[in-house]
């Protein structure tokens, strides 16, 4: 069985200026072909920074303005606001992440990945940037690198659902490691604390396949 969801869903991921927190994951859509999970939004709690030497508003105010433009579905204006902010504060992980998300949505993969890489360099604990970068790297076919990025996110935040679900999907669909996929799916279901009918169906399918393989192996030994 194959499955399909939209890697770059229209979910805004607004992150902290210097750090990240956890957030609920969005379910993959119940379509069939591959099954990447979409990165989740995060709540904003940006600390105030001093005005720039040019007399511009503080960085947190400018960041909130950019996030408002993203929420209003005005991506070009939001990107312009983020790039203006990054010109004055080039190492802020949150704005770099949101700029990367806008580039990813616009299909500008190289710019998106460059911004995510800068965001991770500025803050290696930025799990949103790690998660999005993993999705783009996975789509380029570098499954080993995608696995490393999602494992890095989970090393920072073991209860981060988006990275855990993405890793499970990678093991299931791309790397053909059903037992590792089952482990991650089960951890994800335990973590979210509620039933996810889609993921539960994937778990039952993998369990069924595993039982069939075990039965076939036992029959071969008996012969």
Would you spell out the secondary-structure blueprint of this structure?
Elements: H1 59-71, H2 75-88, H3 93-105, H4 109-122, H5 127-139, H6 143-156, H7 161-174, H8 178-192, H9 197-222
Describe the structure.
The protein has 223 residues and is mostly helical. It folds into two domains: 1-16 and 56-141, Tetratricopeptide repeat domain (Serine Threonine Protein Phosphatase 5, Tetratricopeptide repeat, Alpha Horseshoe), CATH 1.25.40.10; 158-223. Helix content is 61%, strand content 0%. It contains nine helices and no strands. It is elongated, with a radius of gyration of 20 Å.
List keywords for this structure.
mainly alpha; disordered N terminus; 0% strand; 223 residues; Serine Threonine Protein Phosphatase 5, Tetratricopeptide repeat; 2 domains; single chain
Give the strand tally.
0
| Proper CATH architecture of the largest domain | Alpha Horseshoe
Bin the strand percentage. under 5%
CATH domain fold name of the largest domain: Serine Threonine Protein Phosphatase 5, Tetratricopeptide repeat
Name given to the CATH homologous superfamily of the largest domain: Tetratricopeptide repeat domain
Order of helix and strand elements from N to C terminus: HHHHHHHHH
Major β-sheet annotation: none
Shape: elongated
Backbone CA Rg: 20 Å
Number of helices: 9
